[in-house]
């Protein structure tokens, strides 16, 4: 049944938004902390790439193993269970004294965050069918907001006695509060369509459309993680700047207005879906010729702005192609993001060894250009 009061209508939305905020917070924080974690465990650039890919591999296999489960047993059960798992994983990470135990904790965290990611997004689409396209911009903006805040939190934590472990302590406490909130909230729809939902769902899933959405996110998230995990190292190596963490915050900061704008201008999604990756490709290529720290900051901000438009515009097409199975399709997209992120993060060290940071980033820019070409076809598909 539809809800009328503001809080009654948006209480579930706020929990979904906070869940995705914490996914961004964890992702941005780990990307910012990987340099310090590598220093503590004496890891090379290549080994840091492998450690980064452990989390991303978990992101890939979680929806692969459990992708359709939320459509069968309910989204609330899945969100509560795996938000609680994030509390446990944060504890393991804080107690890690060597890289193997840390890898176990970060794998568990990545697995749980991946489940939360696609279930929360699918839950938002199901609960708010009238405003879901606009809310896709908002929910993805929360991921970016979390990722902006996280490197700053890591920077502050490095000045304290706990170091990077303090960041994961803070995350664990928020995960605990979020678990309690999810347990206490009803998951009934907050909006109702004026059409029969069964008629909408009876079309069935459009496999070709889903495959295109997955390919877009495979390429985009792979490049995004390849850039973000090694942006600090790039800044240090090419510009002698120790403020790579600030560049990373600017990257995620730019996504916030970008994603809100995608929500506000969702009616233009058929053009925004390919403009975003093409603009990002141009900015990443420009970053490789930056001659100063200030120029790099400006270009990274522009790169983040264009990158911010990819995910929300892809998500606006989920309902078009899902045939009512929103969690299953969103899980498939999440699998694709995990595969892309795992592969590209794992091979970045080898790209760096062969071509340096400049050559590696140019290869990633080329992949973004290919991504824009794939995205151009999506609005022209007809279920």
Please tell me about this protein's structure.
The protein is globular and about 55 Å long. The protein has 15 helices and no strands. The protein is mostly helical. The chain starts with 5 loop residues before the first helix and ends in a 6-residue tail after the last helix. The protein has 2 domains: 7-184, MFS general substrate transporter like domains (Growth Hormone, Chain: A); 207-380, MFS general substrate transporter like domains (Growth Hormone, Chain: A), CATH 1.20.1250.20.
Summarize the model shown.
InterPro entries: MFS, MFS_dom, MFS_trans_sf, MFS_Transporter. This protein has 15 helices and no strands. By secondary structure, the protein is mostly helical.
Beta percentage is under 5%
Net shape: globular
> What is the averaged pLDDT score?
87
**CA radius of gyration:** 20 Å
Q: Number of folding domains?
A: 2
Straight-line N-to-C gap? 29 Å
Major beta sheet summary: none
Helical fraction equals over 70%
Helix/strand-derived category reads: mainly alpha
CATH top level class name of the largest domain: Mainly Alpha
Under CATH, the homologous superfamily of the largest domain reads MFS general substrate transporter like domains
> Which H/E pattern describes the elements?
HHHHHHHHHHHHHHH
CATH level-3 fold name of the largest domain = Growth Hormone, Chain: A
Task: Present the secondary structure layout.
Layout: H1 6-40, H2 45-66, H3 69-73, H4 75-95, H5 99-127, H6 132-157, H7 164-183, H8 197-201, H9 207-239, H10 244-264, H11 269-287, H12 293-308, H13 310-315, H14 318-322, H15 326-377
Helix pairs in contact: 1-2, 1-5, 1-6, 1-7, 1-9, 2-5, 2-15, 4-5, 4-7, 5-6, 5-15, 6-7, 6-10, 9-10, 9-15, 10-12, 11-12, 11-15
């Amino acid at each position: 049944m539809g809800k009328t009061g503001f809080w009654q209508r948006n209480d579930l939305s706020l929990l979904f938004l906070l869940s995705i905020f914490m996914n961004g917070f964890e992702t941005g924080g780990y990307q910012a902390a990987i340099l310090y974690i590598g220093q503590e465990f004496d890891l090379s650039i290549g080994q840091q790439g492998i450690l980064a890919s452990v989390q991303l591999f978990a992101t890939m296999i979680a929806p692969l193993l459990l992708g359709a489960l939320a459509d069968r047993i309910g989204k609330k059960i899945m969100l509560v269970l795996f938000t609680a798992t994030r509390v446990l994983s944060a504890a393991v990470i804080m107690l890690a004294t060597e890289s193997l135990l840390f890898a176990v904790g970060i794998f568990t965290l990545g697995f749980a965050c991946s489940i939360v990611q696609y279930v929360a997004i699918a839950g938002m689409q199901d609960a708010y069918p009238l405003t879901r396209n606009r809310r896709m911009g908002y929910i993805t903006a929360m991921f970016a907001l979390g990722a902006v805040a996280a490197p700053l939190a890591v920077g502050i934590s490095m000045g304290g006695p706990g170091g990077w472990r303090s960041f994961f302590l803070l995350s664990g406490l928020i995960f605990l509060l979020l678990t309690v909130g999810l347990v206490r909230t009803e998951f009934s729809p907050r909006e109702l369509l004026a059409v029969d939902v069964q008629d909408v769902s009876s079309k069935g899933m459009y496999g070709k459309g889903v495959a295109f959405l997955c390919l877009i996110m495979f390429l985009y998230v792979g490049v995004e993680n390849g850039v973000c995990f090694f942006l600090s190292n790039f800044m240090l190596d090419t510009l002698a700047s120790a403020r790579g963490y600030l560049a990373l915050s600017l990257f995620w900061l730019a996504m916030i207005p970008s994603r809100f704008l995608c929500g506000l201008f969702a009616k233009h999604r058929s053009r925004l879906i390919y403009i975003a990756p093409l603009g990002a490709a141009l900015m990443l290529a420009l970053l490789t010729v930056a001659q100063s720290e200030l120029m790099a900051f400006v270009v990274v901000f522009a790169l983040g702005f264009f990158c911010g438009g990819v995910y929300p515009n892809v998500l606006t097409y989920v309902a078009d192609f899902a045939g009512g199975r929103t969690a299953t399709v969103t899980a498939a997209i999440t699998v694709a993001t995990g595969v892309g992120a795992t592969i590209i993060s794992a091979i970045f060290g080898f790209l760096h060894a062969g071509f340096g940071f400049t050559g590696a980033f140019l290869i990633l820019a080329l992949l973004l250009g290919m991504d824009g070409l794939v995205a151009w076809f999506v609005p022209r598909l007809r279920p």
